[in-house]
Automatic annotation (TrEMBL):
Main location: membrane
Lineage: Bacteria, Bacillati, Actinomycetota, Actinomycetes, Nakamurellales
Subcellular location: Membrane
Species assigned in the record: Nakamurella sp. A5-74
Protein name, per record: DMT family transporter
Membrane association type: Multi-pass membrane protein
């Protein structure tokens, strides 16, 4: 599943860069892409419907859509306009690493025994990808 997810994200990154290079309007193109992905994933909603109409669930869905998706993809497209697709992909790999380090340093979160291995692996991936991208 991780390989499929990573492949889809890579394909999206390259396709988005090509759309931007072809002067396609960024916001409508991104919105259409996310709408298609949402429709493709919508059958998963019916796996657990017990709390779907709960007001807390609806607020969480709205927050995720507005802050977690709209703001994040707007920032991603803004950055993609100014850099290459491989660089944008590499920076996307670094994001979970930065988030984890900030959680430890700023929020005083504690690591599980496997966390240092995951952080090391993420750092290694960023290093390998940045070197192969010419960075």
């Amino acid at each position: 599943m991780a390989v499929v997810s990573g492949t889809c994200y890579g394909v999206y990154t390259v396709a988005a860069k090509r759309f931007l290079t072809a002067s396609a309007p960024a916001l409508p193109t991104t919105a259409l892409t996310l709408l298609i992905a949402g429709v493709a994933l919508s059958p998963l909603v019916f796996m657990h419907t017990e709390n779907l109409a709960d007001s807390y669930s609806l607020l969480l869905i709205a927050w995720t859509g507005i802050a977690g998706t709209t703001a994040a993809y707007t920032a991603f497209i803004y950055g993609l306009r100014r850099t290459s697709a491989p660089t944008a992909g590499m920076l996307s790999l670094a994001e979970p690493l930065v988030a984890a380090v900030l959680g430890i340093v700023v929020l005083d979160e504690h690591l599980s025994p496997a966390s240092p291995m995951g952080l090391h692996h993420a750092g290694f991936r960023v290093t390998v990808v940045s070197k192969s991208a010419g960075g």
